[in-house]
Amino acid sequence: MKFKWPSEWKDSDAMSYFISDFTSSAVRPSRKLAFWSTLICDVCLYRKSPFVTLDDLKRCLAWRGNPPHCLDGVLDDMLTKHTVVTCPKLTETWSQWGLGILMSPITSVWQKIIPDASEQKSAPRKC
Hints:
Elements: H1 12-19, H2 30-47, H3 54-60, H4 71-80, H5 87-113
Helix pairs in contact: 2-4
């Protein structure tokens, strides 16, 4: 199956805008962010892999040999919105999940063997 590029890919004026870097203004154009965010997700789905790098995306999404100059800003925006996560964060999340799965039965058994200290009742001590 061949990758389906968006219709703007054939429009030189539109693509000149899309591959250009963000201007120095603090507000990033939502149209440009939406275009690249959608395309990055489409590439991941097409490849059947959630892993991408900035350099890989610049090569993969180059238009007529020109890499998109705004991708670092797009990825920053996606990170802020939690649309993507960094590999260390993903590893941390999976590790926490796995540890939780492992610890749940151990904790359950441990609590049956040694009840929680707050639940234990002790007789008054005699001196």
